Amino acid sequence: MSIRENLLRIKADLGENVSLVAVSKYHSKEEIMQAYQAGQRIFGESKIQAMTEKYTHLPKDIQWHMIGHTQTNKVKYMAPYVSLIHSVDSLKLLSEINWQAQKNNRIIDFLFQIRIAQEQTKFGLSENELFSIVSSTDFQQMQHIRLRGIMGMGTNTDNQAQIKQEFLYAKSIFDMIKNNLHTNCNIDILSMGMSGDYQIAIACGSTMVRIGSAVFDKN
Ligand SMILES: *Cc1c(COP(=O)(O)O)cnc(C)c1O
Q1: Which of 14, 20, 23, 51 to mutate to test the pocket of ligand 1 (most atoms within 8 A of CB)?
Q2: Between helices 160-180 and 127-134, what is the axis angle to 10°?
Q3: Which residues have CB under 8 Å from 69's CB, separation 6+?
């Protein structure tokens, strides 16, 4: 199947209310252009330098999403153009994003990455860490960032019941912040679901899926 056919099939699964981030981290500018020509406009990358290189050479109506772990000292390279950062996992990182956004005279949208998987993963906030950040005055005073929701990654397992439980947990945190937070926020994005588990994620309330191999693999 071509990239175009893959996109058509996935889009049919997603329906109207779920947006698709095509994860292009392992793929060339030529492959991204094939997806672009099939109508795809949102692409996700996991490394700031690679994303910036692609941004420089590809059409300017592409929306670039940072989905990987972000180092504070590299935020400045994406601050002028990044459309959504999915992977914010500390107040320190968020203050740097706020500062770089201010320098670029813009507001940067972001998601908090929440640790929902039972497997040991290095990145992501616990529910308590999330609530302690959003209730801090530091957070409430940041004027150049806007919280749009949360991102979670399910455990890499065949156990569908476990994945479902993790996604429902993410949905419950999403609903809680949506109903309770108002400063710096416009909460409408629940980013969860990848090639292997996006159907489960959508059934659990995902509004944005991040799909790499199912878009770009041609077999
Ligand atoms: C690589 C990656 C994806 C896409 O994974 P696939 O299994 O190729 O769909 C989604 N989210 C994050 C955070 C990733 O790093």
Answers
A1: 23
A2: 20
A3: 46, 87, 89, 122, 123
Q: Is the pLDDT of residue 122 over 70?
A: no
Contact 20, 211 (CB under 8 A): yes
Which two structure tokens, joined as six digits, stand for 159?
């156990």
Tell me: pLDDT of 188 over 90: yes
**pLDDT class for 178, splitting at 50, 70, 90?**
very high
Separation of CA 177 and ligand 1 centre (Å): 25
Give the atom of ligand 1 at the shortest distance from the alpha carbon of 67: 13
Q: Which residue has the tokens 């993790």?
A: 166
Handedness of CA 45, 46, 50, 52 (dihedral sign): positive
pLDDT(187) > 90:
yes
Taking Cα atoms as reference points, which of 67, 71, 101, 70 lies closest to residue 86? 67
In tens, the pLDDT along 129-152 reads: 999 999 999 999 999 999 999 999
Query: 38-42, 116-120, 212-216: lowest mean pLDDT where?
Result: 116-120
Beta strand 84-88 pairing with 108-114: parallel
The pTM (predicted TM-score) of the whole model is 0.97
Half-sphere exposure of 42 (CA within 13 A, CB side): 15
C-alpha 90: how far from chain center: 15
